[in-house]
Write a structure and sequence with these properties.
The chain is an alpha+beta fold. The protein is 57% helix and 7% strand. The protein contains eleven helices and four strands; from the N terminus they run ααααααααβαβααββ. It has a four-stranded mixed β-sheet. The longest helix is centred in the N-terminal third of the chain and has 60 residues.
Length: 355
């Protein structure tokens, strides 16, 4: 038995290498190969990442180069379009030429910024090109001593001409417009009674009606914005001119209506007039039951505007009502215009001496 076991042990030991069997040696070799392959793959991955980073940097540089090339092309096109800049570049010698180029380039950049700012505000490049002369005239307005009040009067005069001469005012020459205005001024100049020297003269009446674009809505005493602007500019100036010519100090504002009956039958004029005339309340609180009250409310609305003008402080401004009793021709109503007649919803302003 012991001899048999010894032979078996000897045969087993014949398959060992360094104490390991062939199977164990093969497993060890495979493991080593896997480690070597992993190290090689890691090295290759690092090289690939580095190559990708370099490629990305190269692409960024190429994009920057393309952008610079586009800017250079744009600059070249700008230079080609600007003959002055191209000439300077062709003859660029010395510091003086360089200063001229820098100055011209600065002006180009500033002009581009101004155009971009105007375009952001809704002004197109085509409009800037076409309306250049008009913009230049506007720029000269402050330097020519033209005040904003004169501009407002000019606009109001233009509107009045368009209303008085629809479709014709634009065709009239300035001299013809001046002749028409002078004719109107001559017609409004006071004349002595009976043509006798030293006779009594009366200040002209200022009539603000639909014919001039100033009127009230039916059944309303509210002033439109154009009406209020005219009172603050044209009317006040005219009142001061009349006062200087006729030595008057009382302004009578007369409110008129058309013949349409008033639908509101509740009036608060007796209760609210003291507060409105003293300045404690606005005319919007007034309610009227007839055309006499409506005419008075309209007169009060105008008196409120005139009273706030410091140039009229020395005048006594009085509201009156003509209701529907006086027609536009200054005569007593004939009671034959029952409908909506805007011309009759008007204001008349008269001036007189207090004593």
């Amino acid at each position: 038995m012991s001899e048999t076991i010894g032979r078996q042990t000897a045969s087993y030991r014949q398959g060992l290498v360094l104490g390991l069997t062939m199977a164990e040696i093969m497993l060890l070799l495979v493991f080593c190969l896997l480690i070597a392959v992993g190290v090689a793959l890691a090295s290759q991955r690092a090289k690939l990442d580095e190559a990708a980073a370099r490629l990305k940097q190269t692409a960024a540089r190429m994009k920057k180069v393309e952008s610079l090339a586009a800017a250079d092309r744009a600059m070249v096109e700008t230079i080609k379009r600007n003959a002055r800049l191209a000439e300077l570049l062709d003859h660029a010698t010395g510091s003086a030429s360089q200063r001229e180029i820098d100055e011209l380039w600065r002006k180009l950049v500033e002009s581009n910024d101004i155009v971009a700012s105007m375009q952001r505000q809704g002004v197109s490049l085509a409009a800037l090109k076409e309306e250049g002369d008009f913009l230049a005239k506007l720029q000269r307005v402050p330097h020519e001593g033209i005040e904003p009040n004169q501009i407002a009067r000019g606009i109001a005069l233009s509107r009045a001409l368009d209303d008085a001469l629809p479709g014709e005012a634009s065709r009239l020459a300035p001299q013809e417009i001046v002749a028409l205005i002078e004719k109107g001024i001559d017609a409004s100049k006071p004349r002595s009674e009976g043509g006798l020297k030293g006779g009594h003269t009366w200040p002209p009446i200022i009539n603000l009606s639909e014919a001039d674009g100033y009127f009230f809505a039916a059944g309303s005493a509210d002033l439109t914005s154009d009406f209020e602007i005219a009172l603050q500019t044209l009317v006040v100036d005219r009142l001061l001119e009349i006062a200087a010519s006729f030595d008057v100090d009382v302004i009578e504002v007369i409110g008129h209506t058309d013949e349409q009956p008033v639908s509101n039958h509740v009036s608060n004029l007796d209760r609210t007039l003291p507060f409105v005339t003293s300045g404690g309340s606005s005319t919007g609180l007034l309610q009227w039951a007839d055309n006499a009250g409506l005419g008075l409310a309209r007169a009060l609305a105008v008196v409120k505007v005139l009273s706030f003008d410091p140039r009229l402080r020395k005048f006594r401004i009085l509201p009156l009502s003509g209701a529907q009793l006086i027609a536009t021709d200054g005569k007593l109503t004939r009671w034959d215009e029952k409908g909506d007649v805007r011309e009759r919803r008007r204001i008349e302003i008269r001036m007189r001496k207090s004593s």
